[in-house]
Amino acid sequence: MHTALTILNLLGGLAIFLTGMKMMSDGLQKVSGDKMRQLLGIATTNRFAATACGLLVTSIIQSSSATTVMVVGFASAGLLNLYQSLGVIFGANIGTTMTAWIVSLFGFKIQISLFALPVIAVGFFAQFIPRVPAIRRTGEALVGFGLLFLGLDLMKNTIPADFAQNPQVMEWISKFRPDNLLNLLTLIATGTVLTVILQSSSAVMAMTLTCAAAGIIDFPTSCALVLGENIGTTITANLAAIGANKTARRAAVGHSLFNILGVVWAVILFRHFISLVDWVVPGSPYVNDPKTLTAVLPYHISAFHTIFNVLNTLIMLPLLKQLAALTLLIFPKTKREDNKQTELIYLSTRFANTPELALVAVRNEVERMMSFVTKITDKVMHAVKVEDEKMFVRLVEDVKEAEKTTDVLEHKINIYLTQLSHGNLSRDAVAHVWSLFDVINSIERMGDCGEKIARILEKFHTKQAFSQADIDNIEEIAKLTKEITRETRKAIVFVQHPTGESAKEANEILTQAAAREEELNALRKKLLKDRSTRYYEGEEASPDFITAYSDILSNFERIGDYALRVTENILGARSPEHGTKYITVPSKEKHA
Questions:
Q1: Cβ-count burial of 507 within 10 angstroms (0-12 exposed, 13-18 middle, 19+ buried)?
Q2: What DSSP character marks residue 177?
Q3: Range name among 270-279, 325-334, 383-392, 521-530 with the lowest pLDDT average
Q4: DSSP type of residue 220
């Protein structure tokens, strides 16, 4: 009964530790979420920049799992290629060792209860401070930080002081020491399985440090478990890659190969590696005195973890191309990879651990959806003046196909945003989600307008009802509409890649978008007046044709209206109550 209670108390402490770890990571991501995207942009420079980026991002958000999921998602989206993805993953492996150092520095040297509960109290009540999102998010991170150490303290205090001195316990533990290859591999497998089950290498590392500080396991045994934890942590990336494209799956497999190959050389040089760490870190980790053991052993284990990942990265960086080639053998390239237009590319990976960064992927998907609208306006413009019947039919069919794609994408993005809105999002992120609902709805309606124009042209094409003047007029408004849709797409891209003069540029984009929409309205009125003048001057035209001509112009004008609505939403001008980043041109009454 006593043993069962001890185990349950240990699991309870572990549960609090894991909860704290997640809350701290989520809070830190909310504080620095958008900056993470900018940091990942640095990864496109070279392999060394990618590694430094992965190290920095993981150190900030304190979760290698979140970083690797992010990398898999961006690889799936095409924002990072295979080499850049692997570079970021290398850095993430180094960055994740920070958790062990934090636990070693604070978890065993001081009385945790002296600061854990006050930190939780400060963080909890900070979340109720209104109108200061940064303080609320920091408060969430502080609660997580406090819970993390509270859970560690519970685990540490649950283990009896004389537990490791029990002769039966000592005899049982001695059977698992890595004195031979079989025991070493068994311990590595144990560390791997525990990490896979708990989905957190940090939690297993905390358990390892706690047991080591209590004298239950010795230094070599701890190191063997740490090697297993490095393999087990790759499961998160591989789970995230399920259903993603081949680039994302290659990145996940590359992560596994990187850690497995690292463990291989570490196993071969295990005893020498242990001696190296003993030489680097002061103090002996083999003493029996509990106080000395607590003061020395956690640092040795943390140093082993860090040195292993640093050396593994230094070995693998020059061999990055060879590692990438190995992943390509597992997932070979095909001539047409993942060429399904109606599938979500940027959102093929579920950003379960990084909901704030999911918005970046959503905006990429929105930009892709907008590309089909620019394609529609381009095809319609050519269909107006083309004389070849086969070419006309193909252009109209292309428009219909692109419009169907926007319908499907709108539905799928809507589902994704709905799921995302139920997650743990910041206030600004929720505002962005609701704004994006309107954006994708507007883009889908732009596609509908383009298809209506194509169907009208298809109906009257064989009747040759349009005069040359009519064709010229429709081509003129089509060209302007095409330019407007392209500028709208550029505005979406601008939000993804802002510059130092972002606010000023956003003002210019909004001002130009409003002016272009007014220009389109004026052109429509002018062309309708021109058609009316020609009719009264004797040019023959049936009522059906006049209605069709008017509908074509009206649908082009509606595309301009929706385009302005998209630009205003994407730059934040339509929702000043949410405190969005760019607020300049107030919405006109008809767009409200």
A1: middle
A2: S
A3: 325-334
A4: H
- Residue whose entry in the numeric block shows the structure tokens 């083999």: 286
3-state secondary structure 478-524: HHHHHHHHHHHHHHHHHHHCCCCCHHHHHHHHHHHHHHHHHHHHHHH
pLDDT, tens only, 80-120: 777 778 888 888 888 878 877 877 776 655 565 667 788 88
Q: How far apart are the first and last CA of the chain?
A: 67
Question: From its phi and psi, is residue 409 left (phi > 0), alpha (psi between -120 and 50) or beta?
Answer: alpha
Q: Is the pLDDT of residue 65 over 50?
A: yes
Query: For residues 227 and 193, what is the distance between their CA atoms, to the nearest angstrom?
Result: 12
Distance CA 487, CA 556 (A): 15
Residue 360, Cα to own-chain centre: how many angstroms? 7
Of 220, 73, 214, nearest in space to 152 by CA? 214
Structural contact between residues 400 and 454, judged by C-beta atoms closer than 8 angstroms? yes
Question: Residues in the chain, how many?
Answer: 592
Report CA-CA distances (Å) from 55 to 23, 71, 74, 93, 336. Answer: 20, 13, 17, 7, 34
Residue 432 has pLDDT above 60, yes or no: yes
List Cβ neighbours of 498 (8 Å cut-off, separation of 6 or more): 505
The CA-CA-CA angle for residues 525, 527, 528, to 5°, reads: 65
Concatenating the DSSP letter of every residue in 361-386 gives: HHHHHHHHHHHHHHHHHHHHHHHHH-
- Separation between Cα atoms, residue 73 and residue 240, nearest integer Å: 8
Q: What angle do CA 49, 50, 51 make, to 5 degrees?
A: 90
Task: Return the higher-pLDDT residue of 258 and 358.
Answer: 258
CA angle 314-320-321, nearest 5°?
A: 155
Per DSSP, the three-state class of 554 is helix
Q: Which residues of 337-356 are buried (b: 16+ CB within 10 A; e: fewer)?
A: eeeeeeebbbbbbbbebbbb
Q: Which of 12, 285, 244, 30 is nearest to 136 (CA)?
A: 30
